[in-house]
Amino acid sequence: MSLTIALLSPGAMGSAVAARLTAHGATVLTSLEGRSEASCARARAAGMDDAPDKRLAEADIILSILPPAAASEPVDALLDHLGEGSLYIDCNALSPETKQALEARVTATGAAFVDGVIIGSPPSDQQNPVFYFSGAHAQRALPLGDFGLDVRTIDGPVGAAAALKMCFAGINKGVIGLGTAILLAAQRHGAGDALRTELDERLPHLLGHFERGVPGMYPKAYRWIAEMREIADFLGDEEAGAMIYEGFARLYGYIAHDGEGAGEDQAMLDAFFAGPQSPAKKHGAD
Amino acid sequence: MSLTIALLSPGAMGSAVAARLTAHGATVLTSLEGRSEASCARARAAGMDDAPDKRLAEADIILSILPPAAASEPVDALLDHLGEGSLYIDCNALSPETKQALEARVTATGAAFVDGVIIGSPPSDQQNPVFYFSGAHAQRALPLGDFGLDVRTIDGPVGAAAALKMCFAGINKGVIGLGTAILLAAQRHGAGDALRTELDERLPHLLGHFERGVPGMYPKAYRWIAEMREIADFLGDEEAGAMIYEGFARLYGYIAHDGEGAGEDQAMLDAFFAGPQSPAKKHGAD
């Protein structure tokens, strides 16, 4: 059994996925033309072979896993070489509408398109992210599961996998945003210690989510502003929750701004997690 | 050791608290003047004694625990009789600013004021809510702990206990709102089953919170609209999260409206929790 995969492009996630695939016997091609020496070294360490776009287009599966802020040039260059028999899988965190627009461009060449998303951190000895695929050709992505990836299909159109990714991020980062807003308000009103006690007793799962997620958010807050606005667009209108996510975008903008300045709010949040300065005093019945 | 408590008024929470106090040997007075026969029966079953306002004002502790939509008449009538030595504890879920305004009215009579809140369900064989008290006179509420209540003080001014209650509700009901918005979006995009699988594997604590909280919210959604707006007011400005809670108010308004009509969205949420209609198919590495 052999499988040739073209991978765009060898960023952190792309290289880790390629390393997993080559370790399981797959051939992984990528274009190193014009890439930095560091990128080339990373690609070779992951077992990838350099190949021109024409050869990439002939691979069994084309996987697009671009770094978050990447331009779309690698995709544009490849489109000219696609044709019937090509299988193009976009694994980037885009909106359902953007995926559908990309599908139209890819299928215009005669190639098949699959909507893919990756949930979790890059593959490593400790963990393996899950790949979800949707669209009429989703089953054609399954051979990746024979080469070390955790792959699952969703019985839905192009856009369903994209929606899953947005929803998962919306829950995880929304809960972190709620914690950020409310814990700051509690601290400002002198109720932080009592709130921590109550959360610990009644909603310990949420206190844990805040402890893990809020401090880790500070350096990412700036990036999350646009991500929250994308989720607001995805939800569509106010009654469906769009205003909630516009609110998170502004909150994260505020936190990012705070971090560039004195960091007073980040310090206030850290103080919440550091524990009792003046703990609630408990009396009476237990 | 004896303690006489005046309780305004014998609603569901007030009566349950009174029953707990009288079972532990406290004397609990309330005014039954003009109350319905059902209220009078409930008050007597809880061991409360009927008393005129003048006698209520002479109790060791005056506890205001009004039903959510209650008018403030019981309080207004009592204010005329308060004086130095009276201890007035407001245990209602009001904003810090409203508590401070009430404090001003009470202390103008010479009486002492304590900010109190109750977190949890009414006392029963199974559970006991926690009473938090803040303000300069908070320590004077502690004798309630000798009569079966779980009482704690917060080392903060009048308003700190009120803030705690708002923050706790903001987290609990905010997380339910996030679930409502996102689970509906996932269902509409055909990604509901895959999202449930991912939440179950990666964020099971949040899936559990949604399962417990979302279906129970439907009949309360109408009431939560105003509560979300109060939390938005409490947070103050957009960057502090006020817009997030205005968004929740609109979302809950939408859910309440849906429940008055065909209930299509509630049915869609129920379908999410009911489990796989077309579950994600899993392949490859585990």
Automatic annotation (TrEMBL), chains A, B:
Signal peptide per UniProt:
1-18
User: Has UniProt tagged this entry with the keyword Signal?
Assistant: yes
Drop me one GO molecular function for this one.
Answer: NADP binding
**Domain (6-phosphogluconate dehydrogenase NADP-binding) ranges:** 5-137
The alphabetized UniProt keywords are: Signal
Give residue ranges for domain Phosphogluconate dehydrogenase NAD-binding putative C-terminal. Answer: 186-252
Q: Pfam families given for it?
A: DUF1932 (PF09130), NAD_binding_2 (PF03446)
Statement: the UniProt record of this protein carries the keyword Signal: yes
Q: Which domain of life is it from?
A: Bacteria
The name this protein goes by in its record: NAD(P)-dependent oxidoreductase
Q: Which organism is it from?
A: Parasphingopyxis marina
Q: What is the lineage of its organism?
A: Bacteria, Pseudomonadati, Pseudomonadota, Alphaproteobacteria, Sphingomonadales
